[in-house]
Design a protein that fits this description.
- The complex is a heterodimer of chains A (409) and B (89).
- In chain A, helix 12 links the parallel strand 15 and strand 16.
- With 409 residues, chain A is an alpha/beta fold.
- In chain A, helix 1 crosses helix 2.
- Chain A is globular, with a radius of gyration of 21 Å.
- Chain B has a two-stranded antiparallel ribbon. A two-stranded antiparallel sheet of chain B has the order 3-4.
- The relative contact order of chain B is 0.28.
- Classes of the chains: A alpha/beta (409), B alpha+beta (89).
- At the A-B interface, strand 9 and helix 8 of A face strand 1 of B.
Chain lengths: 409, 89
């Protein structure tokens, strides 16, 4: 286990750009959008100064950025881009094209609230609303994890059983613009871990002309979707395997499809994702000091969703408290919905309290997580679980409306 | 190391008539004026349905069974030798 490389104090966006360089990405179509902009700026400077050997394409929109990434990946090279918020939404149509064509493109999504109203701060709505495009999605808690996960996810995405694109999702500003110490692995070690991409399934080749994206009528279409679904599920084990391989080589482990903290003896488990999960570790320690046996299950992979692992960890607990930074209007938080689906048909499925909070960058501290956990435990133990989800940290005048019995759910 | 998951991809060899006998629902058809044609074969290069071949006189010949009438050939023709004519005419 070698922990070589150099230490630098960098932002999450620098970590993403350095990861693209270390992965020897060959094409980067780029369109700037806050808080992602500096990722493509750093990459531009790497290429301009000769530190990175790649084509940089200045496109006229995010839709074109993804279209160019598809073209590059279809021609058989590793492609990378980055986006956020409305930019990701503008890409939506082409996201389906990338996944359906089975092209393992990499993308950093710097999570940001969706407008209107205009807001540049963290919120998972942008990426979570794209959950059914066929892209793998991993949510990140630290700058080191950003760098390491991009390298790992190329390996998963390019595996001959997977061949799907991936998003590495990092919280806007909380990670993208915050400096942390990050170990930058040596290029030769990364090259060994992640060899050059060579498409095992198809590529554009003038010697062997093919068309892609053509018509598939009812007798063909369904199996293509089934094949994507099967690959997505296969990625669950591969994410674990690659994380283990990364640990053996670089000595760092951020979890596989989930990350568990003090869950072994826990009566109650907090489930969340992104930087709220690192806050939740502190909250768990606080609650344990007060004598409550609480653990944390961080959801790293949101697509594929680790239903089996979630069920194994959560069954037979006294209760589960899920904290979401996104709203599926009238249904709760997206993670809350998935976790319920993991638990529904198993014996020993515990009661679930789902909180929606932190939208548009509203601060969620470890103290907030302590408070939500206590509130959740209180609801579970006193049988006050009237609703599938609750809003947390609404302004008091709105909270009164929210909690009144007249609001139907 | 793989489980051999079948990767079914929307990729195929270009071939005539992949979308069925498109001549049935075509609205306009391309007609070549051999007096204007300079045999540059741009129409052949751009035809998305692979329905243009060399006819008996050496000029482009269009297979109307599979031509869907998209008009790309007429559009790219540098001498305006291809006209789109309404089917009923």
């Amino acid at each position: 286990m070698a922990v070589e490389g150099t230490w630098e104090i960098i932002t999450g966006n620098q970590a993403a750009a350095i990861a693209a360089k270390l992965a020897r990405v060959k094409v980067v179509p780029a369109y700037p959008i806050t808080p992602q902009t500096t990722i493509v700026e750093y990459i531009a400077s790497f290429i301009e100064s000769g530190h990175m050997d790649a084509e940089y394409i200045r496109v006229e929109s995010e839709h074109s950025a993804m279209a160019a990434a598809i073209g590059a990946s279809a021609a058989g090279v590793r492609a990378f881009t980055a986006t956020a918020s409305q930019g990701l939404l503008l890409m939506s149509e082409v996201l389906h094209w990338a996944a359906g064509s089975r092209l393992p493109i990499g993308m950093a999504v710097v999570n940001r609230a969706v407008g209107p109203p205009w807001n540049i701060h963290v919120d998972h709505q942008d990426a979570m609303s794209q959950r059914d495009t066929g892209w793998l999605q991993v949510y990140i808690s630290s700058n080191q994890e950003v760098l390491d996960t991009i390298l790992m996810m190329y390996k998963v995405a390019e595996h001959p059983d997977v061949l799907l694109p991936f998003m590495v999702c990092l919280d806007g500003f909380v990670l993208s613009h915050t400096y942390m110490p990050v170990n930058i692995p040596r290029q030769e070690d990364v090259d060994e871990f992640l060899p050059e991409y060579s498409p095992p399934h198809w590529k554009l080749d003038p010697e062997n002309p093919i068309t892609f994206g053509n018509l598939a009528l009812p007798e063909e279409y369904q199996e293509m979707r089934w094949s994507m679904d099967l690959s997505m599920r296969r990625a669950l084990d591969l994410i674990e395997d690659v994380a283990e391989e990364f640990f053996q080589k670089f000595g760092r482990y951020h979890g596989g499809v989930t990350w568990k903290y003090k869950v072994e003896d826990a009566d109650y488990v907090v489930v969340t994702a992104g930087t709220m999960a690192s806050e939740a570790e502190v909250a768990v320690d606080e609650l344990r000091e007060e004598g409550m046996r609480v653990g944390l299950l961080k959801v790293r992979a949101f697509r594929p969703f680790p239903h089996r692992d979630v069920a194994e960890v959560l069954q037979d607990r006294k209760g589960v408290i899920i904290i979401d930074r996104s709203i599926a209007f009238s249904s709760g938080g997206p993670i809350g919905i998935e976790v319920r689906s993991s638990l529904y048909n198993i014996s020993g499925s515990p009661p679930v309290v789902n909180y929606v909070t932190g939208l548009g960058g509203r601060d969620v501290t470890y103290e907030d997580i302590v408070e939500m956990t206590k509130d959740g435990i209180g609801r579970i133990t006193s049988d006050r679980l009237r609703r599938p989800y609750y809003w947390y940290k609404l302004k008091p005048e709105y909270e009164k409306i929210e909690l009144s019995e007249e609001v139907r759910l | 190391m793989g489980l051999g998951i079948p990767i079914i991809i929307p990729v195929s060899k270009p071939s005539k008539g992949a979308a069925g006998k498109t001549g049935l629902w075509r609205v306009e058809k391309p007609v070549v004026d051999e007096d204007k044609c300079i045999k540059c074969w741009l129409c052949w290069l751009y035809c998305p349905e692979d329905v243009i071949t060399e006819g008996p006189n050496g000029f482009p010949q269009i297979d109307y069974t599979f031509c869907k009438g998209c008009g790309v050939c007429a559009d790219v023709c540098p001498t305006k030798a291809i006209q789109m004519i309404k089917e009923e005419e």
